[in-house]
Specification:
There is one protein chain. An 8-stranded mixed β-sheet has the order 3-2-1-4-7-5-8-6, with helices on both faces. Helix 1 links the parallel strand 1 and strand 2. Helices cover 34% and strands 19% of the residues. The model has no long low-confidence stretch (mean pLDDT 95). The protein has 9 helices and 8 strands. By secondary structure, the protein is an alpha/beta fold. The radius of gyration is 18 Å and the shape is globular.
Length: 263
């Protein structure tokens, strides 16, 4: 009988599997952990993970965070999956709260929750639909749980985006939500904290050329007719005139090829 929930942990390099070990994943009835390990260099699986019957470590020869997550989707067998990184802190209570929320909302396909990290991020105060953009809200990957069904079967991260991608170094989670909306999935936010993230997520770190390319692309895909006016505002918010060039470069790369990135 499959687990009720599988937590899909993406990691890479030998030091990555050590971070997974140090997560001290809680043992919870009905919960399993799937780990996809890229760039593993044939290093051994730590005994603390190898000895766990609720942890499965798989090795991948592919590169890129979005590819890693998609391989995890393909390997999953549970009715619900939770997207995870290799540096998070879960508790039995948080995972049980997630499962209770999923059970209480059988018509929802795409669940977005809260996470706790040292830097403030805006979350809506109340449960709400995400089928239309919510002001100030942006999606983070490890807040997302998906119900595996016929409606969500084709939902995948776009592998041109995310850490390890050659040009767009972020934005994959926002593009996933945009894709889910276009697919007609029922997407909802629940103000329940399910995980602690001890460090800063990619979106909160100092921008690089690749993350600015991604930001420009997401603006262009989100605002088909007004993106060219919005990018200077983004550069102003970053207090960086030099950000305008990479923002426009990323936007121009997708603006006239929307069908490649959105259904």
């Amino acid at each position: 009988m499959p687990a009720a929930l599988q937590v899909l942990i993406a990691t890479c390099r030998p030091e990555g599997i050590s971070r997974v070990r140090d997560m001290n994943l809680p043992e919870v009835d009905g919960v399993e952990y799937l780990v996809m390990w890229q760039l593993h260099a044939d290093a051994p699986v730590p005994e603390a993970l190898a000895a766990r019957v609720d942890v499965t470590v798989m090795r991948s020869e592919r590169v890129g965070l979005s590819a890693n997550r998609n391989d995890l989707f393909d390997a999953a067998t549970s009715p619900v999956v939770l997207i995870a990184d290799d540096d998070l802190i879960y508790t039995p209570e948080s995972l049980k709260a997630l499962l209770e929320t999923v059970k209480a909302n059988p018509d929802v396909d795409y669940f977005s929750f809260k996470h706790d990290e040292p830097r403030y991020k805006f979350f809506p105060e109340e449960e709400c639909s995400l089928n239309k953009p919510v002001k100030y809200f942006y999606q983070t990957s490890f807040e997302i749980a998906l119900r595996r069904n016929a409606r969500t079967a084709a939902l995948r991260f776009h592998e041109d985006f995310g850490i390890g991608a050659p040009y767009f170094g972020a934005g994959e989670e926002e593009l996933l939500l945009m894709t889910a909306r276009r697919m007609g999935l029922n997407c909802r936010f629940f103000p329940i904290c399910i995980v602690t993230h001890p460090g800063l997520s990619t979106g909160n770190r100092k921008p690089t050329a690749k993350t600015l390319h991604a930001r420009g692309a997401i603006v262009a895909l989100s605002h088909r007719w007004t993106w060219i006016l919005r990018l200077p505002v983004h550069a102003w918010r970053l207090r960086s005139v030099s950000a305008l060039g990479p923002l426009f470069a990323g936007a121009l790369r997708v603006a006239f090829r929307r069908s490649k990135y959105l259904p």
